């Protein structure tokens, strides 16, 4: 029986070890990937439908690429993990970057060219809470959940509360903020929240190192 402190200390190691030895039904995984080719993206008409679908696809795709390429330590073992590896989804060849930056972030920073047909798949309005739901396979990412269009607002609200509560720590006395690098990387998406909030003007910010381990 583990002592609480020992169990907590070794939890990440145990989780990683389990992932590396857990059996994977590759035939079933390939069946799901094949089904994505046949999905009709025309049925995704509302932002709730698009957010739920693309978040689930992104999270599943990261796991597929990690397993398919036999990555052991982190996704940067595979050059171009986010940008170069694509899957056929409803007739469109999409990378992880295409899904995140092109579709869910409304083509932030001009990720897709203006004449790219994939722009027709993007959301109408950027929802900054996607950053608390997308999991790129790294230990520092938000946890994976299955998102449903009929509950997406409540689910994203919960994901936001959980991630912000653990990863955006404000000390009013010392005027310091310790937070995940996500809050800096996607600062432009957060409007007047978090590091952009005027109430934190003058606070010293310390970004937590991002753990890219699988």
Description:
The chain has six helices and five strands; from the N terminus they run H-H-H-E-E-H-H-E-E-H-E. The strands form two sheets. Strands 3-4-5 form a three-stranded mixed β-sheet. The protein has a two-stranded antiparallel ribbon with strand order 1-2. It is an alpha+beta fold. The chain has one domain. Strand 1 (86-89) and strand 2 form a beta hairpin. Helix content is 38%, strand content 10%. The chain is globular, with a radius of gyration of 19 Å. The relative contact order is 0.12.
SSE string: HHHEEHHEEHE
Q: What count of domains describes the coordinates?
A: 1
> What's the end-to-end separation, in Å?
27 Å
Contiguous runs where pLDDT drops below 50 for at least 5 residues: 1-18
Approximate helicity band: 25-40%
Tell me the overall shape: globular
The tally of helices reads 6
Largest sheet: number of strands, sense, barrel closure: 3 strands, mixed
Name its key features.
two-stranded antiparallel sheet; disordered N terminus; 10% strand; alpha+beta
């Amino acid at each position: 029986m583990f002592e609480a402190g020992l169990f907590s200390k070794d939890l990440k190691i145990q989780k990683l070890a389990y992932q590396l030895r857990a059996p994977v039904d590759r035939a079933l995984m390939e069946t799901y990937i094949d089904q994505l080719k046949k999905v009709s993206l025309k049925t995704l008409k509302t932002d709730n439908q698009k957010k739920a679908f693309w978040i689930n696809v992104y999270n599943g795709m990261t796991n597929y690429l990690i397993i398919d390429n036999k990555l052991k330590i982190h996704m940067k073992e595979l050059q171009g993990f986010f940008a170069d590896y694509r899957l056929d989804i409803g007739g469109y060849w999409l990378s992880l970057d295409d899904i995140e930056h092109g579709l869910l972030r409304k083509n932030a920073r001009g990720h897709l060219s203006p004449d790219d047909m994939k722009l027709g798949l993007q959301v109408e309005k950027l929802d900054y809470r996607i950053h608390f739901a997308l999991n790129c396979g790294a230990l520092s990412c938000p946890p994976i959940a299955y998102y449903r269009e009929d509950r997406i607002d409540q689910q994203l609200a919960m994901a936001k509360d959980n991630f912000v509560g653990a990863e955006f720590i404000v000390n009013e006395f010392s005027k310091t903020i310790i937070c995940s690098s996500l809050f800096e990387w996607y600062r432009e998406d957060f409007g007047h929240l978090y590091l952009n909030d005027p109430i934190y003007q003058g606070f010293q910010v310390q970004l937590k190192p991002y753990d890219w381990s699988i």
